[in-house]
From TrEMBL:
Domain of life the protein comes from: Bacteria
InterPro entries: Cyt_c-like_dom, Cyt_c-like_dom_sf
Coiled coil: none
Keywords assigned: Heme, Iron, Metal-binding
Protein's UniProt name: Cytochrome c domain-containing protein
Pfam families tied to this protein: Cytochrom_C (PF00034)
UniProt key word Nucleotide-binding: no
Domain Cytochrome c positions: 14-102
Length: 105
């Protein structure tokens, strides 16, 4: 059962991740499924470390990578467990979202 505090945290994280601001270059609203990506791949898909950026990744490449993680083609640690949980429709929505984002400079 979710507590009111937990729900407030989720709402605040969602608001922060979807670019709720007055900035002219605000990030477009993220699909809810993208929130799970931000923990490792950085806010709006821009990583600060060795994990690949998702922002600006071409749609076909994103879908191919997720298919590889979902199958036996590649072992990606956490991604091999996460990728199979998404439906084709969710993956398509994520691919479109990340492809439309401005890549990190």
């Amino acid at each position: 059962m979710h507590t009111p505090t937990h729900l407030l945290r989720v709402m605040l994280l969602a608001a922060a991740a979807t670019g709720c601001s007055e900035r002219p270059n605000a990030v477009p609203p993220a699909p809810p499924q993208a929130l799970a990506c931000f923990g490792c791949h950085g806010p709006a898909g821009r990583s600060d470390g060795d994990i690949p950026d998702l922002a600006g990744m071409p749609r076909d490449r994103f879908l191919a990578r997720m298919a590889a993680f979902s199958g036996d083609d590649e072992t990606g640690g956490v991604m091999s467990r996460i990728a199979p949980a998404y439906s084709e429709r969710e993956l398509a929505r994520l691919a479109d979202y990340f492809a439309d984002l401005e890549p990190a400079p």
